[in-house]
Amino acid sequence: MATTNAGAASAQGESEPAASSKPIVNDFSIQIATVNGSGSQSANSVLLRSIFAMGVPVSGKNLFPSNIAGLPTWYTIRASKHGYLARKKDIDILIAMNAETSREDILSLRPGAVAVYEEAANLKQFRDDVTCYPVPFDKLTAAVCPEAKLRKLVRNMIYVGVAAQLLSMDMAVVEKTVRQQFAKKQKAADLNWSAVEAGFNYAAQTFTQQAPFVLEPMHATEGKIIIDGNAAIALGAMFAGVTVVTWYPITPSSSVVEQLIDFLKKYRIEKDGKANFAVVQAEDELAAIGMVLGAGWAGARSMTATSGPGISLMAEFAGLGYFAELPGVIFDIQRVGPSTGLPTRTAQADLLSIAFLSHGDTKHVMLFPANVKECFEFAGAAFDLAEQLQTPIFVLSDLDLGMNNWMSEPFAYPEKPLNRGKILTAEDLQRLGSFGRYQDVDGDAIPYRTLPGTDHPKASYFTRGSGHNEKALYSERPEDYQNLMERLARKFETARTMVPAPVIVQTGKSKIGIIAFGTSDFAVAESRDQLKKEYGVEADYLRLRAYPFNKEVRDFVSSHERIYVVEQNRDAQMLSLLKLDLPAAETTKLRSVRHFNGLPIDARSVTDEIVLQEGI
Amino acid sequence: MAATVTNPAPKTNRIGLPVLEYRGSKTTLCAGCGHNAISERIIDAMYEMGVQPEHVMKLSGIGCSSKSPAYFMSRSHSFNSVHGRMPSVATGALIANKTMLGIGVSGDGDSASIGIGQFVHLMRRNLPMIYIIEDNGVYGLTKGQFSATADIGSKLKTGVVNDLPAIDTCSLAIQLGATFVGRSFSGDKKQLLTMLKAAIAHKGTVMLDVISPCVTFNDHEGSTRSYKYMQDHEEPVGEVGFVPSFEEIDVEYDPGTTYDVTMHDGSSLRLRKLHEDYDPTDRALAVKTLMEAHDKGEILTGVFYIDTQKAAFTDLLNLVDEPLATLPQERTRPSKQVLEEIMSHMK
């Protein structure tokens, strides 16, 4: 993603307020303010997908409350001819559908922005530097929708029509998208389309002032897919051959398993109607991870998906998994903590708690997908790594990536066969005579294991979270404990060489480097273009994709004078992990760029902070 | 002298294994601990039933009881997990390989306090496994604090009196959906062995609460979990008889005096009534009888409840016949065409 965006970094930056009369093409953000539970999702989806269908790169973000219905919610859509997918800090077009927040919504706009709102709200009174398009939504809705109880839903489609007219959208494309959206319900499709048309016609007949933003067809989305990160993880897990899935529902991870269940039911039921998978909704996260490790011990590819509060509960079992060497995959779709925090807002703030999750000397492998494609790929890689390394593997996504729709290249089929790790069969044991469960035979600190049910009298061993020797016998002997702990540390060194390597973009001339990971990548890619265009600063970039870090990370740091570590948490958690890993002299190069207000990080915030610290 | 004696071939069971092959490591529990007697009965039951040791998973939590899987069946895979969390580990393991026989050993602290959440959900799922609580009413490893199964009014060695009511794990298990629930006493060799053999034949959750006196911390005057107390207050609800599927039934009883239950594998469980009108298929009656006996200071033993019809959790999951754990990639990774189809829907 980093390289794609860097390549797309043409001469133009983000749009400026429309001072001239020439409209800005394919480069703006829309914010739709609605009430949670009012069914605006379909309308927003039609708008997003119509822009996508016009070939214009687009991204959508749902900023929603932790609530079933009634509280304010916002959806932002960004169209970017440059292919920037990060959140845009400023809103260009506001569609204010929530009376409760509309005053605040319009006051937050920058001068030169555009606002569409319910006529009766008279928002014009608050701003004379914003182009206003009042629309009698209720009146228009009543005219197209005789059934009163459907009006709440249909009302949203009116704004799709208004926006389509103001942005000069291709109505044939919009109609096709509406009909796709309601493909299974002809009546609903007709009703919604008539609402879009009503909005379009009203705007065409009423508004004389052209909006300063327009959409023009491009060819930048051909062949691309739209998918959310949680669905991508679910697909990755299914194609990695997952067989045991356990979970306890928690926002924003629930849709990983919900979507996985749909996929598994469709594609993993065998000819005789039986399932070659099991999904168990556990009583809590403790049980969910316990089941994962029990299944992993027995030889299954097992996983659970959770978020921060679940990670906290899993601490005890994470230590067991590390110490007794049990495979399992844990997907953490991060949200804002600590405690309940902001359950529906995004963050990258579980790094430190996961890296050392559980008491005693414990270290865990983490993978950091930065886009939906990597959600798919790393889900697969995680199962291989878990079985190869015989340890729990944590995949850290976040709410922004997991619950929002992203455009992406289609996913490539995993051609590499599944790697099930070092497992001895009855035939192996026949040949070997016996085995030591925790013996480092190959020098990579990864021992061999047998699975329960292996038909050989020497196959069994005793798995325990208490002290054990190489033969898996109970031991409190000092040398046994120390040997075991040192081997586990060496195994972590082996992990370094097996996890996904960082993605590095560098000129070889720059003194400044940026290190980021996960969804911060979208903002960093755009920020690098801003730094270059606006300040003439070329910053090299290393995107971390896993912990433990490999040698390239150290080399990157040592070949730069200043390193900006960009992350979405308060305490510079990734910077702390880097400090632990780097030689003391290198750590003084590290500077921190943090974003932690619950909204996805944006490029402007990154650029401003780097410029400030650089003293430019 | 040894040179002149030839050892006769050791006696073997129906799969040709001597009882030695069912033994474990030497126990490190206290001499006289009830848990050791239970381990012995497990060995006998598995041997007599001719269970292949490699097809057994032993699971436990933390505590004296949970150490005991090391002391029986070394040829079986074993998992000593974390405190109170054995049910979840067992659930995962048995889903991953439903062809295995699962036997879990827990304690009263492990199940009734720290692990009560996982305990009730395992019962509710009717996971096919044998779940044994080695119940002594105290935490032994931490030197004798009360557990949640200690009776109200019972006394610690230090004189501390328990002022909270006991959790009856059997009543709980019956209410929640376990399909074979009973209580026995580590000192009652015959009853415990018979119940364990029947447990092996059952498909569904078997919950056995086995009173197992702690000789170090809870075997004194004032305890309701002592050998002496059990001798004076044990009250069998019925006499348990069991005939495995591979043996002939050779004793007939008068009709009306026994309950005969045909188990999943064709074995017969015969419960001879000692209490008038006791019906081990009546859940409400079972719970009522347990509560009434407890109020009288009796410790009821025997099989309280059995249901051979209810689907086990692994059946509800509609799993393929082979273990999920070792399915080949050809069955668990859908084809390239499937991915292409999914991708085309997302365009």
How would you explain this protein's 3D organization?
- The complex is a heterodimer of chains A (616) and B (347).
- Chain A has 4 domains: 22-214, Pyruvate-ferredoxin Oxidoreductase, domain 3; 227-406, 3-Layer(aba) Sandwich (Rossmann fold), CATH 3.40.50; 426-498, no CATH class; 503-614, Rossmann fold (3-Layer(aba) Sandwich), CATH 3.40.50.920.
- In chain A, α8 crosses α14 (372-389).
- By secondary structure, chain A is α/β, with parallel strands linked by helices.
- Chain A has a 7-stranded mixed β-sheet, with helices on both faces.
- Chain A contains 22 helices and 23 strands.
- Chain B is α/β, with parallel strands linked by helices.
- Chain B has a single domain, classed as 3-Layer(aba) Sandwich (Rossmann fold).
- Chain B is 30% helix and 20% strand.
- In chain B, the strands form 3 sheets. Chain B has an 8-stranded mixed β-sheet with strand order 2-1-3-4-8-7-13-9, sandwiched between helices. Chain B has a 3-stranded antiparallel β-sheet with strand order 10-12-11. A two-stranded antiparallel ribbon of chain B has the order 5-6.
- In chain B, α3 runs parallel beside α5 (116-125) and α6 (169-176) packs antiparallel against α9.
- Classes of the chains: A alpha/beta (616), B alpha/beta (347).
- At the A-B interface, β9, α8, α10, α12 and β17 of A face β2, α3, α5, α11 and α12 of B.
